[in-house]
Amino acid sequence: MGNTDSQARFVQLALCRILDANLDRAREGLRTIEEWCRFGLDNALLTEECKQLRQELAHWHTPALRAARDTPGDAGTVLTHPKEAERSSVQAVLQANLCRVQEALRVLEEYGKVYSPEMGAACKQMRYRVYTLESQLTADQRHQLLERSSLYLVTSPTENLFATVEAALKGGLTLVQYRDKTADDDVRLRNAQKLAHICRHYGALFIVNDRVDLAIAVDADGVHLGQQDIPIALARQLLGSQRLIGRSTHCPEDLHRAIDEGADYIGVGPVYETPTKAGRPAAGFDYVRYAAAHATVPWFAIGGIDTSNLPDVLAANVKRVAIVRAIMHADQPTLTTQYFLSQLTQQPLLGTSYDH
Fold first, then answer.
1. Where is the Thiamine phosphate synthase/TenI domain (predicted)?
2. Under a CB-based contact definition with an 8 Å cutoff, are residues 194 and 225 in contact?
3. CATH match for 149-345 among 3.30.1340.30, 3.90.76.10, 3.20.20.70, 3.10.410.10
4. Which of the two residues, 87 and 348, has the higher pLDDT score?
5. Known binding site: residues?
6. Which DSSP category does 280 fall into?
7. Which end of the chain is more exposed for a tag (fewer CB within 10 A), N or C?
8. DSSP codes, 49-118
9. Which residues are annotated as a binding site for Mg(2+)?
10. How far lies 205's CA from each of 55, 178, 229, 243, 299, in Å?
């Protein structure tokens, strides 16, 4: 009888220690996420959801569970992993803590079923809420970064594709589109996978041109569609609400239709005739000025823009530009990117010179 009672007390103590540790883990992770929602995104709704989840967890974090804590005797306190010692970006911090919260809630759900069925059920519902929070947070981050991006690099096929894109990212670029109309699908898939990895490392958005399937396959931040591509509504159905969808536009009718259909951003152009869009006449500055007056989503002037004509483009009230050849064919992509960004943000480059 005594052994049975002792075993029951041991199991109960271990159960309480598991619940206490994972309640701490979930609450700490939520607080880390909440701070970014509050100070990084200025998003009151996401901040409030994090706070509500923390408070609901605090309800289950009773003195009885806290009393079971034995930090000096916890074998797990000395365990660590090299990746825990550093984070490559804010995104990495958020992802790590979202995973931490989700894992902790799963533990609380399973062991909570033994300790208190009500607790298990509550943690199950909270876990689903955290999945929703993750989707909302990802979407909000992407839109925030899109809003802040004034320079958009659209790639063209080159032998030094990856080196050029990485050099531009080192110059401060935050938005990249992979565009290759001629390569085989297996080549496009490999290129998109590598570019997505590079962009994630630098905390930049990665968009795939035309191909929704490739965007999904490499977990891209979104897709860019031309006027002849699939409808935005279908792309949204396939991609979900958290990814970005852009649309090329060439006239006021295109602009209004794209916005009405739910495009997150639009391309406006071509401003000048360009071999990238062979056979398409330039839309010119009249359409650019129209977009400046009427666009209600972020828009990027595109088409033949380079360092020599950038001042004329900016004079048409352009705040964002998309660049292809001027960066992809540049001798110094990092410096060229810095030059474009300095002109777009009206911040002079310090300690560098640029020869037009």
1. 151-327
2. no
3. 3.20.20.70
4. 87
5. 177-181, 209-210, 229, 248, 274-277, 304
6. P
7. N
8. HHHHHHHHHHHH--HHHHHT--STT-GGGG---GGGG--SSHHHHHHHHHHHHHHHHHHHHHHHHHH-HH
9. 210, 229
10. 33, 11, 21, 10, 15
pLDDT at 276: 66
**Averaged over 221-235, what is the pLDDT?**
97
d(CA 228, CA 225): 8
How high is the pLDDT of residue 69?
87
- Express each pLDDT in 239-263 by its tens digit: 999 999 999 999 999 999 999 999 9
C-alpha span between 126 and 284 (Å, rounded): 53
Checking phi first, is residue 209 left (phi over 0); if not, alpha (psi -120 to 50) or beta? beta
pLDDT, tens only, 184-222: 999 999 999 999 999 999 999 999 999 999 999 999 999
